[in-house]
Design a protein that fits this description.
By secondary structure, this protein is of the alpha+beta class. It has one domain: Winged helix-like DNA-binding domain superfamily/Winged helix DNA-binding domain (Arc Repressor Mutant, subunit A, Orthogonal Bundle), CATH 1.10.10. Helices cover 59% and strands 14% of the residues. Helix 2 crosses helix 4. The chain is elongated and about 55 Å long. The chain starts with 7 loop residues before the first helix and ends with a helix.
Length: 123
């Protein structure tokens, strides 16, 4: 079977996927399954948009699983020190999820690899 031709942008993305996979397989990388990674990305994106997600909102992400399953994933991500919770001073009832420094560092590694993939393809 021969390799199909791809566009430069498709090559960049595929190279990025290769590099991201290699980061996740490093000995010191957190072991995340695809579902944990998807949940972590949803939470981190909302945080990045200055709209932190509540635990209630996170367990309502039906496209990622049932509420019970999502609650377990949140617990695992907290145990892996990838997420932490906080309360707003004016509302102690709602718990918000935010990425930890460990998560930000992991995403920083992904960003470096993505930039590397783009520069390889564009040269």
């Amino acid at each position: 079977m021969t390799k199909k031709s791809t566009t430069a942008t498709a090559n960049a993305y595929l190279r990025f996927l290769q590099l991201a996979k290699s980061i996740q397989q490093m000995p010191d990388a957190p072991l995340l399954d695809a579902n944990e990674k998807a949940l972590l990305e949803e939470v981190a994106l909302r945080w990045f948009e200055n709209q932190p997600m509540t635990v209630r909102e996170a367990i309502g992400l039906a496209h990622l699983g049932s509420p019970a399953t999502l609650h377990k994933r949140i617990t695992r991500l907290r145990q892996k020190q990838m997420l932490m919770t906080f309360n707003q001073p004016e509302d102690k009832r709602a718990k918000y999820l935010i990425p930890t420094e460990k998560t930000i560092s992991l995403f920083g590694d992904f960003g470096k690899k993505m930039n590397s993939a783009i520069s390889v393809v564009s040269h």
